[in-house]
Amino acid sequence: MLNQIDVSRIKAIIAKLVSFGTRHTLSNQTDPLRGIGAARDWIAAEMRQYAAASNGRMTVEVPSYVQVPASRIPTDTVISNIVATLKGAEESNRVYIISGHYDSRVTDVMNFMDDAPGADDDGSGVAISMELARIFATHVPKATIMFAVVAGEEQGLYGSNFMAKTLKAAGVDVQGMLDNDI
To answer: What pTM, to 2 d.p., does this model score?
Structure first.
């Protein structure tokens, strides 16, 4: 599988993420070209394209919730993760997670207007999760693998906490997790 990794594709994913200007958790969620909403929608669409090659074994969801005002979240804010789940063929109850976070920030954690390209924090982690989802979609793993891209991390780990609580409540047996954050 290592020979399937496409460095130019990883670079292109990072460049596309940077092109959204900012992916700050508090940035625009409805603009189709700028902000965290544009990034969310593009990532989900790409993951769905990867899933199409899986013969129905990979599904893509965008679980979301409204975070009420809290530390670094001044107003009700939708936090959305993107999760591509590749069902295991033999031990589907065993789950492994590969993740990165797609939100970004500038030095002032509350500044959601200025460009925050986030190529290294954490566009690179998102690109790894996405490239692995693309590659694994054409394989049949024994255990289930979730390729997660979470939001709200720069504001206080909101997306990953939401994912962990959701998995725990569902009784998912997470055997391991690789978080690709710089």
So the answer is: 0.97
